[in-house]
Every structure is written in C-alpha cells, then in structure tokens.
Structure prediction request, 312 residues.
Amino acid sequence: MISVIIASRNEPKTIGKCIKCIADKEYSGITDPFEIIQASPDKETLDAGLTTSKELKLSSNQYIQIKDPKKGKPYALDLALKKSKGSILIFTDGDTYLEKNAIKYLLKPFSNENIGGTTGRTVSMDSKNSLMGYWGHLLADAAHHRRMTVMSTKKDDYHISGKEFFPMSGYIMATRNYDFKIPSNVLSDDAYISYFIRNLGKEIAYTPNAICYVKYPRTLNDYYKQKVRSLGGYIQLQSLGVFKRDKQSRSLGIEMKYTLFVLKYPKNLKQFLWSLLLFPIRVITWLKIFWQRVILKKDMPKSGWERIESTK
Prediction:
C-alpha cells in the first residue's frame, strides 16, 4: 500500500486539485492500493478535502482526515505517520499539484532495495516576467541542477546519491515507512527526513520526470519569511545531531559556488539585472538567519504554522 500524506493549512482553493491529481490513477500512474491522509488545522480546508473525496467516490480507507491542533507541520506529519499503513510514504503540500505520471516516476527507484527515499523536480507555476516569478524559476532550476550534479550515478531515468547528496524537497518526496520521529519544533522537516534516511545507510534518488508544480513567494516579505525558516532549519539541524554521514548541505558559502549558474541563467538584459539583484537578497537572507537562529535562538513559532500568503 502507498500512503500519501498531505499537510495543508488554509488552502481550501487548492487542496481539491492536489487530491485529484493523486487519486486519479490514470493521471498519477499509481497502481498500488493507496490511502490519502490529509492533516489540516482549519475547517475550510478539511471541508474542501472531504468534498473532493466524495466527488471522487473515495472510500473511508482511501481518504482519511486528521484535525491538526494547530501545532505546526512537523506535529501534523507525526500524526499522519502514526495513521499510515503503507510500506511507502509520499509527502506533498496542499497548495501544489503533480504532473501526469509523477507518482509512477517517483516510486520507480524503490525497486532498488538500497534506496530509502526519492524526490521529484519542483517547477514554478509563476511567470518569469516579474522579479519574484523569475527568482522562483531560477532557484527551482538551480536545485534541479544541483541534484543532477551531486547525484551523479544514473540508473535508467533517475539519479542516485553516493558520497554526496542534496536533501529531498518536501513538495514532492517519497520514503520507505521508517520509524520516523520528527521533532515537533523542526523547521526543515524534509531536510530532517533526508538526513535520517542517509544516517540509516540508505541512498536518496532524484527522479526529474516526477514534476511538482509550486507557487513561490510573490512579495519580498514572504520570501524572507519562507527562506529564513526553511534555510535556517539547517542551522537548527546541527543541534539535532543529524550531520553524521553527511555534512551540512546549505550555507551562504555553498550557494556562492553557484554564482556562474545564476549569471548564465538569464535570457535577456532585464533578467540579468534580476539575477544580479538576487545576490544581495541572498546575503541579507543568511544574515537574517544568523540573527534569528544563532543570536536570538528563535525556534518554531508558538502557533507552529507560519502562512506564506502570496504563494496561495
């Protein structure tokens, strides 16, 4: 059985499409029996998910809801993990949707017993004709390039980690059903799970044909809010003791190695100027991370969830 876990908050307009692109077997390519576990804290998103499940005529075994008590995504994931019955777990978010056959491609590497987790490719839904939209495409494509480069061993149409790896994306990832114990305050749950799997001696696969469409922040304030949390989570992981088999994979120094990629990415003068502008923005981002995570030692917000409005 396949267990698909969707953590979603205040996303009643998008959760239906997310569920449909998974439950439609002809579209998703899923062949095994499956269960979709939706964990949400708000009634609107839960109601929208239930309405979609009824439209699709999903049984009570195929669609399960969990009312998350507003303690954050890690807590919601932990509740869903306790409910899951599948030997393979798929994780995604309620404000994304998958390309046709994404699940089929995502599951393929598990025929290799040494593969513990797989991740797909995130693609921006935004237009490149705006500054924030352009940055979304650039950063998503940079992550794709890094996974293709670091996970250099190719098997059929997917790539496998070895001495090095790059963490999975929480927008689209799958793992074997290990006994995960995700700390409730962890800021980067996808990175935590990735290192957990690597510490078991298992490998991570990258399947670029498994595409997940994502909306990225459209305001600078939301950009900082999202990146300070997700990238700052890597500093927090140090204190959680997960860097055993692998070193930390995200830092300003590591990002600077992608200078040429950023400069070669633009197709016209306007985009080139936008690429140049990204450099000081990333420096400010890491300074904010240092201030909040190292100096102030800020942790997960009390509410657990921190909504990025402009991505909805």
Observations:
- The mean pLDDT is 92.
